[in-house]
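Hi W.,

Here's what went into the run:
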Amino acid sequence: MSAALIVDGLVAGYEPGTPIVFDASLRVAPGEIVALLGPNGAGKSTLIKAVAGLVPVSGGAASLDGLDLLCRPAHRRVALGLAYVPQIENVFATLSVEDNLALAADLGPREGRRQRLLAALALFPDIETRRGELAGRLSGGQRQMLAVARALLAGPRVLLLDEPSAGLSPKIVGELFARIRAIANGGVGVVLVEQNVRAALAIADRVVVLVQGRNRLEGTPAQLERDPALAALYIGRPASGVPA
Amino acid sequence: MNLQFLMDGLVVGATLALGATGVTLTYANLRFANFAHGEFLSWGAYLTMTLAGLVGGLSGAPLAAQDPFSIGMGLLACALLAAALTGVLALLIDVALFRRLRQRGTAVTAVMASFGVSMALRALLEALYSTSPRYFSEELQIALPLGAGMRATPDQLGVCAVTVLLAAGVALLLARTAVGRQMRAVAENPSLAQVVGIDVAGVIRTTWLLGGALAAVSGVALGLLVQVRPSMGAELLLPLFAAAIVGGIGSVPGAVVGGLVVGIAEAATVRFIGAEWRAAVSFVLLIGVLLLRPTGLFGRRA
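Here's what came out:
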């Protein structure tokens, strides 16, 4: 399957001259979930932030459906079909749930705007009942769902999710990941940055492991689950099991 | 008790409200206190006066007044154009200076630069028009009785009505339109706004245009009710910031209520304590609000 998102040899960092990501590469096909794993400080979040346009890039290339991403500001990357959901502060707390969604719906064509907004709400019944409330009053899981719903309203080709399970109960993580699987089944490529390795391996089609800003391992979840190197990366020594 | 001080306070508050609305929007979206904002009031008033002079000169007669007001539709049209030009002036200053400082420096750098911009804009007005006061109209208006011992001139009532209409319009813009939602989103979290697909630079441009235009209308109102002087905006700077902070940064209804609170507090101080204390009122309100309720009356914590 041809890749929608192609990242090649990306070098990125917050401060000029001090990159956090060195030579990182990533390919995501439509409908594929790629889990981006790695120990703390590996540069996973920095890599997807750089692809989204929030972290300066000093080398490499990134394209979506053949169109260069790096020459475009963050908001134009969204228009090309790239959606990014941050780990924290991923909703506008002082805006209502409906206004959070309307922000994305406003950017699409006027025709069918209301229907798109209602369809996004319908995907997440938990937030549909709270559409008039301030997003700041939602629980952590509901905020994640609202942020994903808002990202979907932009009609993405590829969705970048930064640790969506952080701080959520296992039950909510299960629900959220089931929705992410459904989104991918609809043809959207997903990059999932996760610390919850077991949950990520359960949902991913392919896994890329980043260490110190560089690709270290790559394969299917089945291949990597058997690879002692993955456990070694997380707990510091070779082990038979995959860390939770 | 004579309640005229309430009416006086409402009129002062109405002139402050639109300027404070511009302050609150630029403060919320750009995250720095623009001390040059007061100069946009002065520039709005002088640009209106210049346009009125040009139109009057071309037509061979001064712009006619519309009874019972001391000005007419011609001057209002000039004020509208001057508001647009003041918005463009604010935008040009951002492009030339503040945008670069936002990219490279800290908010403190931009605040200090705004002091410089303020002095430059005021000095330019003094060079172009001199420091002598000017008037939109020299017509003497009779104040109308309003009941409860209060009186107001038609111009004062007109300024109050324009303030209510424009403030309601801006509040509706923020609450109900796409650009309003985008402005609120950028005010809360510009990084997230970018990845939602919002053109943050475009929203900032809209904020400058709107803030500059509202300041110009405020300046014309002040010029109509008092006089036009190069220092008129700078002298209102503290009350404008007091109004915006009392109301709660980012809140348009807050800026209007804050303007009225400052206006009425000033008028009450003059009436009951003494005119020499008037200038201290904004300071006291500002300190009181920052100590007791830093989010202001209508400000919301995220």
